[in-house]
Amino acid sequence: MAQVEWHSVAPAPVVLLTGREPLLLQRAADRLRTLVREKDPEVEIHDLQAGDTTPGELRQVTAPSLFGDARLVLIDNLGRANDQLLDALIDYVQQPEDGVTLVLRHGGEQRGKKLLDTIRKSGAPWVKADPIKKLNDKHAFTLSEFSRARRRIATDAVHALVDAFGSDLAELAATCQQLLSDTQPEPKEEAGPITLRDVEALTAGRVETTAFAVADAAIGGKEREALALLRHAELAGVDPVPLVASFARKLRDVARAAAPGATAQSVGMPDWLFRNQAREARQWTDRGLAAAIQAVASADHGVKGNERDPHWTVQRMVISICRARRIR
Fold it and tell me: Any idea where the DNA polymerase III delta N-terminal domain is (predicted)?
């Protein structure tokens, strides 16, 4: 056999799972576990860590059974195996035992390369689960989550899911499964396509994001967090115009607190708010604050009809503010 996809892998005397995407590796292992159990509910299962397993233990869990009982042996983290276990596995792969399904999981490290080559040359099935980085591949992954469940999903809904959750494949997959569950039709009813509105309804219900949360993160210089919150806010339906207005108000408060001799009373702020803004103001230079205020003014102009893509306008503003905070 040869390389197979995680969703197509089937039990065999030896199966190799390799790569750096934990979600797909785990799915492949779970699929094998399910298929083996379906064939024999009484199967004996051994979950082992390569770093803690000796050649003797390998022989024990794979030794011929007197009654021919089925066994599933999963060994994780092959990159941590010692030389003795790697040699024992190389020998075993070349002459596996009947009734045993041995699943070996390797995280893509250099160690254990000879074993991997031996497995591939033996004709055993192997799954390669590399991280999904390209946008088109993330779209394809999302679409496949629904097509395997025999459900349709609108293109803009796919894009919205990837925009919001594409940085974490496990979170993206979990959200897809939640959508499938939430939009399950009643018995005897036909399932309609999943729409952008369905995505927005799910996101609005579980992501407590406000315009001020985005502004707080950006003004605090937390660029990655601010952009993630921005994606959630957009999916939750926060309009770009009031979003930019929230940034303007926040920065205005920081600027007022930064004024020489300013007090809570002189700027008309509650004591607690003035203390917070004054603390934040100490992290900004005059040049940086001016650049941030200019970025907000430009974004305000853009989202009110002067740029074609208001969402990109807001994203650019967030990035500019985070960078302005670092100006010295």
Answer: 16-121
In this structure, are residues 230 and 238 in contact, taking their beta carbons and an 8 Å threshold?
A: no
For tokens 């503010």, the residue is 321
pLDDT tens for 263-294 read 988 988 767 678 888 999 999 999 999 999 99
pLDDT band of 237, cuts 50, 70, 90:
confident
pLDDT, tens digit, 9 for 90 and up, residues 89-143: 999 999 999 999 999 999 988 899 999 999 999 999 999 999 998 888 999 999 9
- Note the pTM of the prediction, 2 decimals: 0.61
Specify the pLDDT at position 208. 41
Per the CB < 8 A criterion, the answer to whether 33 and 25 are in contact is no
Phi and psi, residue 209, nearest 5°: -115, 135
pLDDT at 233 over 90: no
| Among candidate residues 66, 61, 68, 69, the one with its CA nearest the CA of residue 102 | 61
Helix then strand count (H, E) for the chain reads: 15, 6
Give the right CATH number for 135-206 from 3.40.50.720, 3.40.50.360, 1.10.8.60, 2.40.50.580: 1.10.8.60
Residues in CB range of 230: below 8 A, 6 or more apart: 214, 314, 315, 318
CA–CA dist 69, 274 (Å, integer): 72
For the chain, the farthest-separated pair of C-alpha atoms sits apart, in whole angstroms, at 88
Question: Which amino acid does the sequence have at 181?
Answer: S
Place of tokens 């670092």: 326
Do residues 103 and 75 make contact, with C-beta atoms less than 8 angstroms apart?
yes
- What do you get for the CA distance between the two ends of the chain, in Å? 60
Q: Superfamily for 3-129?
A: P-loop containing nucleotide triphosphate hydrolases (3.40.50.300)
At the topology level, CATH places domain 211-324 in Zinc Finger, Delta Prime; domain 3 (1.20.272)
